[in-house]
Design brief:
- By secondary structure, the chain is mostly beta strands.
- The protein contains one helix and 15 strands, in the order ββββαβββββββββββ.
- Strands 1-2-3-4 form a four-stranded antiparallel sheet, with no helix packed on it. Strands 5-6-7-8 form a four-stranded antiparallel sheet, with no helix packed on it. Strands 9-10-11-12 form a four-stranded antiparallel sheet, with no helix packed on it.
- β9 (128-134) and β10 (139-144) form a beta hairpin.
Length: 197
């Protein structure tokens, strides 16, 4: 598999037909989702077809970041933004949906993998640095530059913010059942329980 740019994020998710989905994000803004081949090996280990047959979807987060074509005079600005971290996660309870973000754009992108299109752009009031899914719910946890974790419901767009401190939230993780979230900043880690709809 050849990729343009440094890998900034990897994620594995269970697909809906006994397969695994691998999402790969790069510093150039490319996000690719691959699926495993049937488990025909004796050891039952999954194998990814990282060629064109196994690729479910691909996009570049910088091509149309605001839902419109980027004007030619703004292309240089977006080329500069392409040196940042891009994150992507496939929703485990809906493997046809990918949630992605970039630390130089104040959006969460909700992408329909079968339709190969962004179906929602959710505005975030700070730059996203980290991303976690709450699989038992339609919620996403976003660690941001303003020291908060922004909890977003991708269906209703309801939001809950949890202030961690003044430092940017560099990492965020969620329990499989969606009951707990852990967030980390420079020199500090915070865990809390959730009460989500």
């Amino acid at each position: 598999m050849e990729l343009d740019g440094a890998i900034t994020d990897l994620d594995l998710a269970a697909g809906n037909s006994n397969n695994l989905l691998l999402s790969v994000a790069t510093s150039k803004g490319d996000i690719s989702i691959w699926t495993t081949l049937p488990r025909d090996r004796a050891d039952g280990a999954p194998r990814f077809d990282c060629g064109s047959l196994g690729k479910l979807d691909g996009m570049n987060i910088f091509e149309s970041p605001h839902g419109i074509e980027v004007p030619a005079e703004d292309l240089l600005v977006y080329k500069e933004k392409q040196r940042h971290n891009v994150r992507a996660r496939v929703m485990r309870d809906d493997p046809g949906v990918c949630v992605c973000c970039c630390d130089s754009l104040q959006y969460l992108y909700i992408r329909d993998l079968s339709g190969h299109q962004i179906v929602k752009r959710v505005v975030i009031d700070a730059f996203p640095l980290s991303l976690a899914l709450l699989p038992a719910h339609n919620w996403v946890a976003v660690g941001a530059t303003d020291g908060t974790v922004k909890m977003k419901n991708v269906e209703s767009l309801e939001e809950q913010n949890v202030r961690i401190g003044a430092a940017p939230v560099l990492a965020v993780a969620a329990a499989e059942n969606g009951e707990y979230v852990v967030a980390g900043t420079k020199g500090e880690m915070v865990k809390w329980g959730l009460e989500l709809n």
